[in-house]
Amino acid sequence: MNATDLCYTPATELASLIRDKALSPVELTRAVLDRIERLDPTLNCFCTLTADPALEAARRAEQAVMKGGPLGPLHGIPFSVKDLALTQGLRSMAGSFIFEHRVPDTDAPFVRRLKEAGGIILGKTTTPEFGWKAIGDSPLTGITRNPWNTGMTSGGSSAGAAVATAAGLGPIHQGSDGAGSIRIPSSFCGIYGLKPSYGRVPVWPTSNTDSASHVGPMTRTVADAALMLAVMAGPDESDRTSLEGTPADYVGRLHDGITGLRVAWSPDLGGLPVDAEVAAVVKQAALAFQELGCVVEEVNPGFADSREMIRCMWNAHEAGNFGQYLPEWRHRMDPGLVAAIEDGFRYSAADYVDMRGKKLAYWDTVRPLFETYSLLLTPSVSVAAFPVGRINPEHYPQHPWDWLGWASFSYPFNFTGQPAASVSAGFTPSGMPVGFQIVGRRFADLTVLQASAAFEQARPWAQKRPPVQ
Fold it and tell me: Which residues are catalytic?
């Protein structure tokens, strides 16, 4: 196969070729690095690239294959890490001038596991400053662009990971999601992104966002996500919020099927705005679950109104976590983040505790739906990708920091900690991807993966490639 086809080959196939000595890890890594060198000046999805160490790791991986020793499930497979995560000996800037020169002396647990499984780290992918918004730009690293149309946003905050995945700059990429940061850019870039159950993938340092932040895979195929999650998941003593016990067999049971599942379908989650071109694509995606043997019923979920909750808690966290930097760094920080922090300062401790109580009670309004249905289907985002340089689409109210109006399908399931995925469902008339959200019961990551895989077989998307060259 040619170099482009190699870069778009799924990790599951690449791993098999490497084990069979039909593909060299060096050949694969060099092909991906060459493609990054060619496309990243346009896309700007890598903020730190480790080309020489990656090639050296690939040579060691090749030697291990030739010696015939035991190989990990990701042996020789390139991967990237979002720049919010700590990486040993590798800059971890969080998209901010404040940490431009920070080089940690340890890896986050999931980074360590990806390496121990034989993965080859390519570098770090871009994120808005501290991951505060669902757009792909930061004052430090600039604008990350959508490979389907480079005038459009990638979404965020796992901006670089989504773009790298879509553009064939490596098969597997790590993202994180505190209010939609895996699912939103996955929707905008036409890839698969999974926010696992809270705690499924251990995080250290544990995010100080009241159990909202999840780590998960961003890939072109569901099988690659299952493979990556199988490596990253499982308890770790460094994260006391990580889930106890051995994760399910995501890879071995991926294609068990979903026939007979009772599935809820909500086109607007009880009244959220959805652009007509998005609604039409997502409705057709929901109908596919009937073809797959599910009992699909349109519902009004009846969840409590969470709009005030997210705006309070999001900005209170920004203020508490990053407000300390304003006196020295304000002039070099994202103005929208500064505005969000200043908004967060207006809440008192009593306000925050009151809202946190409402968040805890929110589950009581979500739980009844999932006592009846195994899955909930919704749009991933209210809109398709819109032009770079904007925090809101032109047809939405404009605001210095509030981007949540068009991204309100995702954060409810950060509040509840449930697994939720964005699946590529189709395209708008102008050729921009549209995502479809699949939400599972608590801890039912396997069911979400199985539903995603079944939909992928019914409506294949991974063979579609963006036009960026």
Answer: 82, 157, 181
Q: Say what the pTM is.
A: 0.98
Is the pLDDT reported for residue 69 higher than 90? no
Tell me: the pLDDT tens digits for 379-411?
A: 999 999 999 999 999 999 999 999 999 999 999
Q: What angle do CA 222, 93, 239 make, to 5 degrees?
A: 60
Query: Which region among 86-95, 139-148, 219-228, 241-250 has the lowest average model confidence (pLDDT)?
Result: 241-250
Measured between alpha carbons, how far is 334 from 142 in angstroms, rounded to an integer?
Answer: 11
Cα angle: 233, vertex 438, 74; to 5 degrees: 30
- Give residue-wise pLDDT tens across range 285-299: 999 999 999 999 999
Q: What domains does the chain contain, in order, with CATH numbers?
A: 3-458 (3.90.1300.10)
Three-state secondary structure of the chain: CCHHHHHCCCHHHHHHHHHCCCCCHHHHHHHHHHHHHHHHHHHCCEEEECHHHHHHHHHHHHHHHHHCCCCCCCCCCEEEEECCCCECCECCCCCCHHHCCCCCCCCCHHHHHHHHCCCEEEEEECCCHHHCCCCCEECCCEECEECCEEEEECCCCCHHHHHHHHCCCCCEEEEEECCCCCHHHHHHHCCEEEECCCCCCCCCCCCCCCCCCEEEEEECCHHHHHHHHHHHCCCECCECCCCCCCCCCCCCCCCCCCCCCEEEECCCCCCCCCCHHHHHHHHHHHHHHHHCCCEEEECCCCCCCCHHHHHHHHHHHHHHHHHHHHHHHHHHCCHHHHHHHHHHCCCCHHHHHHHHHHHHHHHHHHHHHHHHCCEEEEECCCCCCCECCCCCCCCCCCCCCCCHHHCCCCCHHHHHCCCEEEEEEEECCCCCEEEEEEEECCCCHHHHHHHHHHHHHHCCCCCCCCCCC
Q: How confident is the model at residue 71 (pLDDT cuts 50, 70, 90)?
A: very high
For 199-216, the pLDDT digits (tens) are 999 999 989 999 999 999
